[in-house]
């Protein structure tokens, strides 16, 4: 390390200091240190506390960033006066002052090193207006981004809530209707049973009827599904059979018995079990039994559907799970599709092409679900009311691959390079904030050490997410800023 100072004339040759006053240049010369680094030495290390603002005086430097454990060179330069290190020193404690990249000396290099604390104080004193403008721009941008991101999340939550409410309403309404009808059927069953058991009906016949009742109930669960044509033919057959025996409302009873898998042979068994005068009450009592069983099955199906939707919402939100865990990507994708079911138009076909051999991946599942939501939402917007949405998973080397594919008009090449920029959107005014894909990119790349890319042509737009199958050595909790700066 050399302690020799630069002269005013030497400092004025550097573009950063060209317009400073003599007093300011004297302070720079007295405070800054001339630091020499041999070829291959590290000047600053990514992630370590940022203590110095470096200005290159001679030699060639290389700036690298760590991406998924590999170093990627972002800049190599020998331009005198380029700067690196604590490049946001003027923001003080408003940001975490860490070196955003690793800088190495490619050849023997000499730097002017200004200590951050002292330089920040003088910089704010010399350029108070500029600092206020920079501070306002940084804080304003950050606050605006946070507010719009919150609004984006609230809008997404509102859409998902509306969709979930719609999905829950259907089975809930079905269960209510079935329970009301069930009340009526129980009342009818009690009435018919009272007629059968008023003392005029032989106990042995009643016993035979209960045996038939259990037989018919047991058959409901195993009844083969029928085509509409088969149902119509069997209903005609049973209706004619009941008409021949002058059973009132026989055509109303026929669909009930057909739905339970009963035939004219079963009705013959009923006629043989009871006296002719009790045939019609016995028939209706058994019909009530069949209807009751069907209604109970309907209520069970509806409440099971509600339970599955609640479980899907629970899976989507990850409320009861640790933030980072070994995750089955398919669970999150299926939960997201269920949550967004209300937004998927009838004309859009959903194809799930899942590779079930894909292992669990280390991830933040709640954040991944937000990514899936953004990508699926964009795909649906692109297609409109008609198209095919394909969700595909697979393995790509050491990464898990998730593709969200739509058959929309595609993203033009000139816009494709900008889709992950903050606030950039291809949607109409008021329809998008331009943060969905930016947030998705940061979640995948910074939080998970993965990769998010888009490939598009008319009729085939693919957003490809790659996630490492093994946890990277380092996961960034926040987005790092800045790489190389030159004049």
Structural account:
- There is one protein chain.
- This protein is 48% helix and 18% strand.
- The chain has 487 residues and is of the alpha+beta class.
- It folds into three domains: 8-126, Sandwich (Jelly Rolls); 161-308, no CATH class; 324-468, Histidine kinase-like ATPase, C-terminal domain (Heat Shock Protein 90), CATH 3.30.565.10.
- A hairpin with a 2-residue loop joins strand 12 and strand 13.
- It starts with 7 loop residues before the first helix and ends in a 19-residue tail after the last strand.
Strand content: 15-25%
Q: Please give the order of strands in the largest beta sheet.
A: 10-12-13-15-14
Shape: rod-shaped
Span of the ends, CA to CA = 26 Å
Mean pLDDT: 78
Residue stretches low in confidence (pLDDT < 50, at least 5 long) are: 428-435, 474-487
Helix and strand composition category: alpha+beta
Radius of gyration computed on alpha carbons: 37 Å
The SSE string, one letter per element, is HHEEEEEEEEHHHHHHHEHEEHEEHHEE
How much helix, percentage-wise, in residues?
Answer: 40-55%
E-strand count: 15
Give the structure's gist in a few sentences.
By secondary structure, the protein is an alpha+beta fold. It folds into three domains: 8-126, Jelly Rolls (Sandwich); 161-308, no CATH class; 324-468, Histidine kinase-like ATPase, C-terminal domain (Heat Shock Protein 90), CATH 3.30.565. The protein is built from 13 helices and 15 strands.
Keywords:
487 residues; alpha+beta; Jelly Rolls; Heat Shock Protein 90; four-stranded antiparallel beta sheet; 15 strands; rod-shaped
